[in-house]
Amino acid sequence: LNHKSLNLININKLNLLKKNSIIINYSRPEVMDYNYLFKILKKRKILGAILDVFPKEPYSGNFQKLDNVILTPHIGSYAIEIRNYMERELIDKVIKYNAKI
Questions:
Q1: Do 30 and 4 form a contact (C-beta atoms < 8 A)?
Q2: From 57, 83, 87, 88, active-site residue
Q3: Distance (Å, rounded) from C-alpha 49 to C-alpha 34?
Q4: Which of 9, 38, 45, 54 is the most exposed place for a label (fewest CB within 10 A)?
């Protein structure tokens, strides 16, 4: 996340979505204008959204009122397979770093 990625998916880009679009955000909440996303979902300007990240978790807010939104907790990294992968990746990076010094 950096200044270039803040509101990367802004009002202008959200307005480009077709009526049958479903937008998915599982990266960071700051990359998308959630306030405007809520407005277009409420007006049914797009088909729906799947959101996995929120400014404050656990999430409680307006998106829960909509039937065209799927809200999931941001827990993908808790799967044992992902944890094992992350640990192996970290170990590999530590070994490579130590080999350089």
A1: no
A2: 57
A3: 11
A4: 45
Encoded tokens for 4: 């270039």
Find the angle CA(47)-CA(48)-CA(50) to the nearest 5 degrees.
Answer: 155
Report the alpha-carbon distance of residue 94 to residue 33 in Å, rounded. Answer: 37
- 3-state class (DSSP) for residue 12: helix
Residue with tokens 């990266």: 27
Taking the model in full, what pTM does it have? Answer: 0.73
| DSSP state letter for 74 | S
What type of residue sits at position 12?
N
- The answer to whether 87 is a known catalytic residue is no
Tens-digit pLDDT profile for residues 62-77: 999 999 999 988 776 6
